[in-house]
Design goal:
mainly alpha, DUF4351, DUF4351 domain-containing protein, single chain, 5 helices, about 90 residues, about 0% strand
Length: about 90
């Protein structure tokens, strides 16, 4: 006689057990986390541009602050290759 309260696991029971999806290896980041990341990228690019080219004109600073991450990445790479600040922001 089995005094155990829990049923024994068997193949017959395994097919009826509920299966839950595996957790995603990288969960989606929240909107605030993405915004924080973009803000960090903007601040970094502004610091790098200022260190390389001096004080930035207000319109260019505003453009950086309103840019998407993909645009910030492009500008960051471009600033390493150009000689003048205006060349960073030339639309290709």
């Amino acid at each position: 006689m089995n005094n155990n309260k829990w049923p024994r696991h068997s193949r017959e029971h395994s097919h009826s057990m509920r299966h839950y999806p595996e957790p995603a290896s990288q969960p989606r980041r929240s909107r605030s986390a993405r915004r924080h990341s973009a803000d960090s990228e903007q601040r970094l690019l502004l610091r790098l541009l200022t260190a390389r080219f001096g004080t930035l004109p207000a319109p260019l600073e505003a453009r950086v602050r309103g840019a998407e991450p993909s645009q910030l990445e492009l500008w960051t790479h471009r600033m390493l290759q150009v000689e003048r600040l205006e060349q960073v922001f030339v639309d290709a």
